[in-house]
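Message: Study each token:
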Amino acid sequence: MADIETTFTSGDVTLHGSLRMPAATAGPVPAALLLAGSGPTDRNGDSALLPGDIGTLRFLAETLAEAGIASLRYDKLGSGETGLGPYEVEDVAGLGFSTFVDAAADGLDHLAAQPNIDADRLLVIGHSEGALVALALAVADDSPAVAGLGLLEPLAVRLLDLLTRQINAQVDAAVGAGQLPLELADELRTALAEAVESLRGDGTLPDDLPDPLRMAGFVPVNAKTLAEEDALDPRALAAALPAGLPVLTSCSARDTQVTGTDVDALDAALAGTALTSLRMTTANHVLKEIGQRSSTGADYIEDLPYSAEFTAGFQAWLARF
């Protein structure tokens, strides 16, 4: 069935989205809220930073519809038709990460209110950073009860821990290749540690950080968002989920953004839930099939099929709803 264009409001923002209903059914159907990953990623999973078709969330909506499950996906603030809403560019980062969690909560309310939707069978499925939003939403006191939670290629550690690991690895690689003097590398590592301490201490950043850190987003205008997102520990949120809640986690050996070790630790925190852990061997971060080659990021927009490993596991998990 074709998408139905829809809008809902969150604060001062009107968010534009797509409601996908399954083929003709005899009564109210379960429904899933789909949450995109980081950056300017739209309702389909496409990014303004990568000029091409990624389509991960559109693929999820299609798979859900085939399983008899409706879905809502939307252009979050800063992406797609929603754009910046009533804000100027310099205002958006200062809104904080809670803006995205609030929007997801309002989206779930909007989905629950749609005709022929079973409000007692609501799923929340987040991809990448969207999985963190899904976790925060699932434990919120004022959100509708969630019947199932999908955490696909999830952000599985605190944000600043992940960024510290990634940046230090890049610094080590540059030193090893002779592209960065050891003295400058040590200065970068020290500045990064101090930036993390400042964000976790009082939620601020100095404006004189080295250029490589500023280019990585460590600038004062982003401080509120970074601090708020880092304060959401995925493992602590996972441990707070209701006992017996059906949860799916997915991770692939070819995903260069998420490690199996991190998802192992997230799975351990999910021990009280009804957990399905889906491990794949040939999918990239956006769930496309890349075989045994290494993912470079360029493969995200290649015309590739979506992972058969993921599809089979996802469909089997959906069958319980």
The chain has a mean pLDDT of 95.
